[in-house]
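pls design
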C-alpha cells in the first residue's frame, strides 16, 4: 500500500480553501476579473471611449481614442451627419486623457 504525500495534500487543501481571487482564477482556469477602477487597469489602458458633440449637427456620439502614442490630432467623420471633425486629443506623460477638442473643418 502506498503512503500519501501528506505535505502536498495539505498544501493543496490550503490552496483550495483560500478565497484569493488569483487562486480561484487559476483553479477554474478563469480570466482575471474586470475591475474598472483598479490601478493595474489604469496603467494598461491604451484606448478610451469619449463622448463627442458634433460641431455641425450638435448630436452627441461616442468614439474611441488611442492613448498609446501621446497627444495627437486626427480627422474623424461624425457618426450622425458624416461631416469631417478635427479631433485634438491631449494626453499626459502617464497616458491619461486630459482633453478632447472637436473642431469644424470648414
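designed seq:
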Amino acid at each position: 500500500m502506498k503512503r500519501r504525500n501528506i505535505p502536498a495534500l495539505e498544501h493543496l487543501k490550503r490552496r483550495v480553501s483560500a478565497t484569493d481571487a488569483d487562486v480561484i482564477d487559476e483553479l477554474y482556469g478563469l480570466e482575471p476579473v474586470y475591475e474598472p477602477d483598479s490601478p493595474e487597469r489604469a496603467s494598461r489602458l491604451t484606448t478610451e471611449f469619449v463622448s463627442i458633440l458634433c460641431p455641425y449637427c450638435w448630436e452627441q456620439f461616442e468614439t474611441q481614442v488611442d492613448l498609446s502614442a501621446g497627444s495627437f490630432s486626427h480627422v474623424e467623420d461624425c457618426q450622425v451627419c458624416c461631416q469631417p471633425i478635427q479631433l485634438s486629443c491631449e494626453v499626459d506623460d502617464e497616458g491619461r486623457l486630459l482633453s478632447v477638442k472637436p473642431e469644424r473643418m470648414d
